[in-house]
Amino acid sequence: MPQEILDSLEEQVNPKHTALIIVDPQGDFCADDGAMSRMGKDISRMQGAVQRLNPFIQRARETGLKIVWTRSIAVPDKARPSYRARDIVREAIAKGIAFVKEGSYGADWYSEIIKPLPDEYIITKCHYDAFEDTDLDLILSSGGIKTLLLTGFVANVCVETLARRGYIKGYYIVLVSDCTDSFTEREFRSTVYNIENYFGRVATSAEIMNIWESMAKSAH
Amino acid sequence: MPQEILDSLEEQVNPKHTALIIVDPQGDFCADDGAMSRMGKDISRMQGAVQRLNPFIQRARETGLKIVWTRSIAVPDKARPSYRARDIVREAIAKGIAFVKEGSYGADWYSEIIKPLPDEYIITKCHYDAFEDTDLDLILSSGGIKTLLLTGFVANVCVETLARRGYIKGYYIVLVSDCTDSFTEREFRSTVYNIENYFGRVATSAEIMNIWESMAKSAH
Amino acid sequence: MPQEILDSLEEQVNPKHTALIIVDPQGDFCADDGAMSRMGKDISRMQGAVQRLNPFIQRARETGLKIVWTRSIAVPDKARPSYRARDIVREAIAKGIAFVKEGSYGADWYSEIIKPLPDEYIITKCHYDAFEDTDLDLILSSGGIKTLLLTGFVANVCVETLARRGYIKGYYIVLVSDCTDSFTEREFRSTVYNIENYFGRVATSAEIMNIWESMAKSAH
Amino acid sequence: MPQEILDSLEEQVNPKHTALIIVDPQGDFCADDGAMSRMGKDISRMQGAVQRLNPFIQRARETGLKIVWTRSIAVPDKARPSYRARDIVREAIAKGIAFVKEGSYGADWYSEIIKPLPDEYIITKCHYDAFEDTDLDLILSSGGIKTLLLTGFVANVCVETLARRGYIKGYYIVLVSDCTDSFTEREFRSTVYNIENYFGRVATSAEIMNIWESMAKSAH
Question: Nearest-CA distance from A138 to chain D in Å?
């Protein structure tokens, strides 16, 4: 029997089978003195998204979602050749900027984001794809998860890679558009466009929290 | 011993370890009477890219590259739930448009593109990711391939998915920018931006053919 | 919510979520004049299993199971280095024995086994693992399959590899012990032991057909 | 260009591209008061293998091999349904035996085995397959590893699963026959048979150390 299809946003974000994924909310992507800021990127957009992400995480906790945090770490001997050949890696090295280096300030969680609780999952990844070389799929499939709420950074890099890969694996993808961002509006918009047209859905945190609230009321 | 890193475009596109990937040059994506055109998309950009892709395929053959063609086929019982829930699939069904259906005109190779030779590889995929559920990696790794020249359609969907996945797997990614396209300039530009900043390199077919020509000369 | 666990054989082999997998019933593994026989292996055990497998396939068809056939094909340019280094490959080459070569008698279905129907799936694999480099998981997961009934050849090679891999992927594994075999009793027994202790369950075709019959009766 | 094939044991175990994998040398598999011993298994064979494994690890370190340790941990919410349905899991629960539980004595390294050094890799796995849901392949492929020397426990379960999976991925497999074992001779022999006939090679630690010694001499 083919699996049942969940058509509506309401069905897809049912807390029973939905996980919140918080991608790489680390100092190097968000902080004023993080690596990206020092390489000239505008991180104010990330800082704004964190302000909206914090209450969404709180509500997801109250609603009982499975919560998964990812963190990027650059490890020289866990890098396939194509990774080490990238310009951004060479540029950072040339400027003497250590990027998401284990143990550094920039690899740590960004100071303004609320922190993982002991029963939440933390995935360490050494590249852009949180599914590859990690136990993310094991955690999700063991828990009967069907839908991924995607938040965090950077929208058009690690978040969109996760959306594309998760969609192919069969997960329903919902980009929480006000809880993620890119360094520019243009990059952010391309991710929104690609996901809503090809890889899943886009919704705001308010829309999703409203659905959860309605569900909780109708359950009484 | 860590693997040797190929830094320059010259090293990366060496015919000894480079494959040309031609993504989904099918009627439904390129032809005037294909599904995408009938759904209102502008396919003239694709038709232009095919004119530049044809001589590039010829040169790649003369240069001895491994050549892999992919084709998309929609098969109802080879579709994970997330695939069947997408709006584009429902919209096509609602309009009575059969999309890349096996045996149909639209699933066949686009009339204006040169056709695969018997010793070239054809990958049939039932979703956007030519690596998942196929033997693409087996073909490439068995042949000692390190670099993928990406061409074909649609740039921001199947081509960019291939770029992201291939990069994570360790292949050097080179988007051949004049031999691929999207339905709009904006979508195309986002793929060019993402690949050149994060997943590999972007080069024109002329640049790559010049490198091959120089190599051939210096080999004499 | 963690997924429901199916404890009993009855629950696991429910036709609604069970697929029959028939591994490599090809001439080279089963026929008197196939490659294995010519390399000195005793294929009479396989021939006996085919006699019991045929009625089991018929019953699985009547019961409405999803049915997947696999076939091995040796393709020189679809072989990773470790494959080509094996003694058995070199020995066959040295003896001038072409092994599961596309288009040959030995690669074709064994003459005594009933043949696939048009709506059944055929997986071509170039090594021992029917999950790797194929769309087997796509077919199974799209169809809501939870349990794999494993039959065919060779028990301790391709069948046990499938059992181990399928188990790790989360499928319930049931080896149909009288519908598979190895070249010797000892090899066959080691597979039965490993699967029933570590990777799933072992049952006879009669036990499974009895369960299906009871289910059909109680459904009236 | 197809990849070069390494035919001989000498070529395959060249330290430049060889990793030593030490599978699950934990108290629950090896210690007198570990879980397996308490469930009635004979762990004396494991204890003997550890005596031979210790000097082999030392020599591998002196020879400069990449060294990877794996450890099994049972985590209830990192277990796909098929895992939780197994008899051995239920039996342990029924007997009140906690099996490889994080933080327990039995999950820790076995007291008699030498311990990992800070620059060696530790893979934590929640099932039998050290490649699935881990970064083992990332570590190996980043380091240019072609050959896996397999040691540790249990030979016919986690070690053979690793051999089968590693072989399919393209690694040369060498089972170090005196540095691994099963609870019985029969189980151990089936693994030796399967690996040497189908998935790679079998050699003793002495044979391999002799090759390394000859290489070192001829390098002077």
Answer: 6
Q: Mapping DSSP to helix (H, G, I), strand (E, B) and coil, where does residue B201 land?
A: strand
Q: How far is CA A213 from CA A10, A59, C205, in A?
A: 11, 10, 51
List residues bridging with C26 in a β-sheet.
C109
Q: Chain A window 161-220: which residues touch C at a Cβ cutoff of 8 Å?
A: 170
pLDDT band at A5 (very low <50, low <70, confident <90, very high): confident
Query: Model-level pTM?
Result: 0.96
pLDDT at position D87: 66
Mean pLDDT for chain A? 94
Which of A80, A134, A142 lies at the smallest CB-CB distance from D80? A142
Classify the C-alpha dihedral C124-C126-C128-C134 as positive or negative. Answer: negative
Contacts of B82 (CB under 8 A, 6+ apart): A167, A170, A171, A172, A173, A200
CA separation for the pair D187, D155 (Å, rounded): 8
| Whole-angstrom distance, CA of residue B115 vs CA of residue B103 | 17
Q: Report pLDDT for D85.
A: 66
Q: How far is CA A200 from CA A6, A160, D122, in A?
A: 12, 11, 36
Task: Count chain B–chain C contacts defined by CB atoms under 8 A.
Answer: 39
Distance from chain centroid for Cα D40: 22
Band of residue D176 on the pLDDT scale cut at 50, 70, 90:
very high
DSSP for B101-122 reads -TTSTTTSBPTTSPPPPTTSEE
Q: Does B40 touch chain D (CB under 8 A)?
A: no
Phi first, then psi: give them for residue D135, nearest 5 degrees: -105, 25
Q: What confidence tens digit (pLDDT) does each residue in A163-208 have?
A: 999 999 999 999 999 999 999 999 999 999 999 999 999 999 999 9
Task: Tell me: pLDDT of B93 over 90.
Answer: no
What letters, b where the CB count within 10 A reaches 16 and e where it falls short, cover A42-77? ebebbbebbebbeebbebbeebebbbbbbbbbbbee
